[in-house]
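Weekend entry, working from home. Most of the wet-lab plans are on hold until the incubator is repaired, so I used the time to fold the two sequences that have been sitting in the queue since the last round of cloning. Logging both here for the record. First:
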Amino acid sequence: MILKVEQNEGVRIDKYLAEKTEISRENITKMIKDDFIFVNNKKVKSSYKVELNDLIEIKEGYIKPITVKAKKMELDIVYEDEYLMVINKPSGLVVHPGNGNYDNTLVNGLMYYTNNLSDIGEEFRPGIVHRLDKDTSGLMLVAKDNKTHELLSDDFKNKRIYREYIALVDGVIQTQKATIDAPIKRSKDNFEKMAVASGGKKAITHLEVLKKYPKNTLIKLVLETGRTHQIRVHLAYIGYPIHNDPVYNNKKSDEFGQFLHSRYIKFIHPITNKVLEFEEDVPKEFSRYLKTLDEQN
């Protein structure tokens, strides 16, 4: 593909091409670095500002087609428009293919449901702006085009998307509110686990007690950062691991997994600028167990 600059735009080439093509700005930056984009037959940097009559050549073959198989499944779609979806993910469902599971993930279901998904980033993550752990249930956003994906990613990065989680932990938390400020990095003992350790990335979790039981506490959590397994790692670190967590709780767990639910989300729609907010109750297994605790209390 060859594009001719017909006006003296004076804008960066990565921004210019993101507006003129269907390629994301992130992928354009990678393509420039990997010699898939030239200006007047010369290499340029992403910061290059296009000029009148520039000939921009975009070579084919860089962006691979998505090879994930579509699979019919029940999706709990809380909201949908032409730009994005809000999904209520069940516990037990992996978000995207990987680690030997390539056919039974949320992405497989999304691809069966629609052909309109962003293709920014990794090949196996169409539409996925952020993720929830396999056994974490609740609300998450899905982008249907690259522009929406980039804007939502920027909103997450700059903390413009507000989310609340609800969790049941083992042990009775004595304080009403607390903030956990402890860095997280990959565990040196188990690559599949994260751990609080010096030299890790900054991680901050705010919690508030909702209800106390004889041996458990129901809490609300708000993340100030978004590290892998952050809530699970932080709560285990302070001695109140999430109930039924198969990884960070030493007690035996069943197949439902951790009692952690993304309950509430509020954000400004990146295209329409409307304020959207959604709330979803915990899964029936979670609710049923809380009812059992209430009856025993």
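Second, folded right after the first finished:
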Amino acid sequence: MFLSVFEMFKVGIGPSSSHTMGPMVAAARFLDMMRGSPFQFAGVRASLHGSLAFTGVGHATDRATILGLAGFVPDSYDHERAEAVLAKLAETRQLHPDGLPPLHFDPKTDLVFDYDTALTGHANGMILMATDAQGDVTLRQVFYSIGGGFVMTEEELAAGKATDEGAPVPFPFKTAAEMLEMSQASGKSIAEMKRANEVSRNGDPHLKSGTKRLWQVMNDCINRGLTTDGTLPGGLMVKRRAKGIHDKLLEERGMNLTAPHTINDWMSVYAMAVNEENAAGGQVVTAPTNGAAGVLPATLRYYLDHVPGASEAHIEDFLLTAAAIGGLVKYNASISGAEAGCQAEVGSAAAMAAAGLCAVMGGTPAQIENAAEIALEHHLGMTCDPVRGLVQVPCIERNGLGAIKAVSAASLALRGDGTHLVPLDACIETMRQTGADMSEKYKETSLGGLAVNVPNC
């Protein structure tokens, strides 16, 4: 099993990888299908189902779908151009994707939030349709946004299509147990094995430039969040807090008046900065999702800014180790809040961040596996219940606490020799089972939990 670091970490836009990026990617794929079809098209339609319907407005799923059908993709998203396209659409009721004729699309009638019809493949389902001049559907495709910006067609999901279809890699581990066995047999670290896999597919220059860009986007996102204030969009009137907290932390530096636990505020503020940017629709990196995008960058920034002896030369090892753990969780369970609750998002992110931090602080493969297990274990059962379907409450603070847990998990693991009772594989399987048993109310539908107990109007 091979899942590239660049599949686990994707540059995209907020507020959601599954509800914003996924639908945009699905729409782009549908345009490619249209371009390859012998039919003549005159219009497009879309319907959103399950979690995409229930929390779609709060996650800007409608906007993302429209822009995807206009030819936008997350990695190269241009906000100003997007606004211009939407304004033109309001006037003309037409979209103009490259390589296709003008397509009729009226957002009021051609984009449907279907709250009643559930699609069976996944909680995040959507149907895209292309029509002829008479308005008859001549091309139709069901897509599922399965978390972290990953998208599969109905046929791909039914066939159990593997994420990886490329040539064999040197270290194809599918479980943590296999990962540790291969590490021991080869004498390589987890990062070294992951690096060998990446290089075998795409070469070393691609890996180096790609991971450098990932951290640049992550760090830029932190910095924007630390210097931007105001109120987040969506109607909850949630005020940005990261800048104010950061300003106070900077004022207190060197005053010898702060308690030791203030370091937790630094971890939290880095994560909150990212998730405030995500909530505002800014550029983020899925890590492994947008809703959990702050945990890993905050942990890495904490390492670089606050750990003695930290070095930027270790960033690649951090990301590779984290991606290896994230791949195990995705392959054997889920990283989708709509499928398994927030344990699958912030829990997975904390496990990945803990593993990365443990690795760059000199942890052995056994200690790294232990760090990931500790972090994931103590997110088990966490629900996904965003108020008004917005990735704001409780998501922003939750990422801060996820970063704190990640650092604590890595520290605890480094205090031991890697020996522990609960294997990471067992913890991942427990998360999968817990997600399967969890009520749909608590899986990104905003039909339970805080979403119904907190006034949101």
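Plan for Monday: verify the second prediction. The chain has two domains: 14-158, 176-453.
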